[in-house]
Amino acid sequence: MKHARLAVAALLLAGGMAFSAAAQDQAAAADTAATLPAWEQLTPAQRELLVAPLRERWDSHPADRARMLAHAQRWREMTPAQRQHARRGMHRWEKMDPEHRKRMRALFHEMRGMTGDQRKALREKWHAMTPGQRKAWVAEHEPRQVD
Question: 39: Cβ–Cβ under 8 A, 6 or more apart, which residues?
């Protein structure tokens, strides 16, 4: 019993230390971001370091250039709140397992040509479905593979 209490205490201490370290890392990252210069003050080497991955993608995928440019234009027109919302969506997508992505692709494909009222009705129907019904719906409405 004494060893169990010591183990729990050690776990709590380790968890507290990890949380503290994460908070310190986050604060240090915020401090670093605040001290980095504006684009105009970056050296040519720093600018090149930032732009090189985009140049590589642009040059190696000529068929995607129109889409890349359209995305950049759309991004520029977004408000900061819209950009934050888009970032959260991208992070959610990256963390999804393949089956969840498949369901979301099917939903997106189905909702693409709908009016707002039709989308709302489909969302309500989706939330009322059981997991088995959702899986059957996805199989029935599977989009063509675009990846």
Answer: 47
Distance CA 63, CA 15 (A): 48
Q: How far is residue 117's CA from residue 36's CA, in Å, rounded to a whole number?
A: 47
pTM of the prediction?
0.50
Q: From first to last of the 147 residues of the chain, give the pLDDT tens digit.
A: 444 444 444 444 444 544 454 555 555 556 666 789 999 999 999 999 999 999 999 999 999 999 999 999 999 999 999 999 999 999 999 999 998 898 888 888 888 888 989 989 988 998 999 999 988 888 887 766 544
Q: Where are the alpha helices (DSSP H) in the chain?
A: 2-35, 44-60, 65-77, 80-95, 98-111, 116-128, 131-140
